[in-house]
Amino acid sequence: MERIDALKPIVPAADAEVEAAKKLLAAAQAMVTAETGRLNGEVARVRAELEAVEKELAADVREKYERVVKHKGADGMAPVEGQSCGGCFQQITGNMLSDLMLGRVVMCRSCGRLLYVPESSTPA
Ligand SMILES: [Zn+2]
Questions:
Q1: Phi then psi for 114, rounded to 5 degrees?
Q2: Structure pTM?
Q3: Is residue 123 part of a domain?
Q4: Fewer CB within 10 Å of terminal CB in the chain, N or C?
Q5: In a domain, 50, yes or no
Q6: Domain containing 14: what range?
Q7: Per the domain annotation, does 55 fall within a domain?
Q8: Backbone angles phi, psi at 3, to 5 degrees
Q9: What is the distance in angstroms between the CA of the first residue and the CA of the last residue of the chain?
């Protein structure tokens, strides 16, 4: 009995601690909710930016294509032959080749033709 009596004063203090912890938890949850809202907004903003950049990129590629074709006609594009431009036979760089493999638009630095990888060639 003596032990229980000794513990009695501790219980209200523990209750208060639980209350304080609950308040902290609620505050933390509110912060998380607010942060989630902020991050969702950020994601939407970045997505919109990406879309804008994609549109710009497409326009840029189209412009390059149109400019080259306007000047060179059907000769404005050249297949990559081995590691060379099929139009002027200048060697292309490894970076250009890997860009091509990634589906990027690459222009020959020497003759300005748009390069493409012929379907028959197999990527290394
Ligand atoms: Zn070339």
A1: -75, 125
A2: 0.48
A3: no
A4: N
A5: yes
A6: 2-116
A7: yes
A8: -65, -45
A9: 84
**In the 8-state DSSP scheme, what is residue 1?**
-
**For the residues 68-83, what does the mean pLDDT come to?**
86
Q: H or E segment at 59?
A: helix 10-72
Residue 78 CA, ligand 1 centroid: distance in Å:
7
Q: Tell me which residues have their CB within 5 A of the ion that is ligand 1.
A: 85, 87-88, 108, 110-111
Domain count, the chain: 1
Distance 92 CA to ligand 1 centre (A): 8
Q: Could you read off the pLDDT of 10-26 as tens digits, one per residue?
A: 778 888 899 999 999 99
Tell me how far the alpha carbon of residue 85 lies from the centroid of ligand 1, in angstroms.
5
Do the domain assignments include residue 124? no
How far away, in angstroms, is 103 Cα from ligand 1 center? 18
Structure tokens given for 79: 């297949």
